[in-house]
Design brief:
Strand content: 5-15%
Radius of gyration: 21 Å
Keywords: FAD, Flavoprotein, Oxidoreductase, Signal
CATH class of the largest domain: Mainly Alpha
Largest sheet: 5 strands, mixed, barrel
Protein name: Acyl-CoA/acyl-ACP dehydrogenase
Strand order of the largest sheet: 2-3-7-5-4
Family: Belongs to the acyl-CoA dehydrogenase family.
CATH topology of the largest domain: Butyryl-CoA Dehydrogenase, subunit A, domain 3
Distance between the termini: 34 Å
Shape: globular
Number of domains: 3
Cofactor: FAD
Number of helices: 13
CATH architecture of the largest domain: Up-down Bundle
Helix content: 40-55%
Length: 412
């Protein structure tokens, strides 16, 4: 692994930081979160036009920039620094890679250039915890889309095409996405399979309700499907089970690296803003930051942020390399590195954000202070993509620290 960044990568970071510093202050972020879309549409279009951010990791033949996971992670770190409310995670990290890998060529040409241009946003609607669906906290070949039982989402093939029935709770950006990628169970209980279906936001029978969330910067929605038309993703009616689960694990590895980078950026800003405040806030005639006990707490936070940043960068490298290390499977490597990096970053953000509130003193405990935005992001991300101990346990099992787990995962 080469830890040095290229001139192009450094330029992506600088340009994005300058733009977001001007357009995404704490009050601007709060205002954007309370719009119907849940984000500033003009900022998202500017990011697409000036930097090609939505298509940063997509191939040029599909309208993308042609960079890799490392550039996407660097951009995500800057987005996390300001808690950018935008469909970056859902459209570009969760949906676009699945369409690129599993979709037909017609579907790729029809959707990926629009996503890359920022014209189309997309969301992944998968019943069950998203961390489990992506293989971050456990094996993802279970009956999470419904398994033939009541609940989840069921798909039925009729004379005029596929119809979807069911409900998905807590769909990230589900209220505003123009395209939904819905995971549904097909074929009944005995011979059932899981498949992904593309659903247009204007489809008849589709109901989307925006939910009240802890973290306003990651809006969620409840999606209800009542006899909704869906188009299968890919050439066949249903892929092989192993093909879909492996694709979701690879997408989970990329998502883990991106989420870790966002958490690192948020933690870095929370720490730096706390340091800046403690340099001017005086107590007993001297800056609070000059007290040794305070310095120790800030130093601990700095070490945590740097360690989490290294882990996030390594995860990006692991996702973007050409092949597996030491003869292991690609999914095995990603399944270890991704959850570990995400666990380290989420834990770091949680601790640094809590310290930021405490070290700001009385003003830090007011809801209006920006420190609470970062604390809520830390708490909400662990609820959605964690918890931390399960991420680490998953990585340990994949690494074989508890012995052979093939049989355990087969029945999980």
């Amino acid at each position: 692994m080469d830890a040095a960044f290229t001139e192009e990568q450094d330029e992506i970071r600088r340009t994005l930081r300058d733009l977001l510093r001007k357009r995404c202050g704490p009050e601007q972020v709060r205002a954007a979160c309370r719009t119907p879309a849940g984000y500033d549409v003009e900022v998202w279009r500017e990011l697409a036009k000036r930097l090609g951010m939505p298509g940063l990791a997509l191939p040029p033949r599909y309208g993308g920039v042609g960079c890799g996971p490392t550039e996407l992670v660097l951009a995500s770190e800057e987005a996390g620094r300001v808690l950018l409310p935008a469909p970056l995670l859902t459209s570009c990290v969760l949906v676009a890679p699945l369409v690129a890998e599993l979709g037909s060529e017609e579907q790729r040409i029809g959707y990926l250039p629009r996503i890359a241009a920022g014209e189309l946003t997309a969301a992944l609607a998968a019943p069950g915890p998203l961390s489990a669906v992506l293989g971050l906290t456990g094996p993802n070949h279970g009956p999470w889309p419904g398994g033939g039982r009541a609940g989840g989402v069921q798909a039925r093939q009729l004379a005029d095409g596929w119809r979807l029935y069911g409900q998905v709770d807590q769909v990230l950006d589900g209220h505003s996405a123009g395209l939904l990628l819905v995971a549904a169970h097909t074929g009944g209980y005995v011979r059932g399979r899981t498949h992904l279906f593309m659903v247009d936001a204007g489809a008849s029978g589709l109901t989307r309700t925006r939910l009240t969330t802890l973290d306003e910067t990651r809006p969620q929605a409840r999606v209800e499907l009542r006899d909704v038309a869906g188009v299968p993703l890919g050439e066949a009616a249903a892929p092989a089970p192993d093909e879909l689960t492996a694709a979701l694990v690879r997408t989970g590895g990329l998502a883990a690296a991106v989420l870790a980078a966002q958490a690192v950026g948020a933690a870095d800003f929370a720490l730096s803003s706390t340091v800046a405040y403690l340099r001017v806030r005086e107590q007993f005639g001297r800056p609070v930051g000059s007290f040794q006990a305070v310095k120790h707490r800030l130093a601990d936070g700095y070490v945590r942020v740097q360690a989490a940043r290294s882990a996030a960068y390594y995860a990006a490298w692991a996702v973007g390399r050409e092949g597996p290390v030491d003869g292991g499977g690609m999914e095995d490597d990603i399944g270890v590195v991704g959850p570990l990096a995400l666990a380290q970053a989420l834990e770091t953000l949680n601790q640094v954000a809590a310290e930021s509130i405490q070290l700001h003193g009385g003003i830090g405990f007011t809801w209006e202070h920006h420190a609470h935005l970062y604390f809520k992001r830390a708490a909400a991300d662990e609820l959605i993509f964690g918890p931390v101990h399960r991420l680490r346990a998953r990585a340990a099992r994949r690494a074989g620290l508890f012995g052979s787990t093939v049989a355990e995962e087969a029945v999980a």
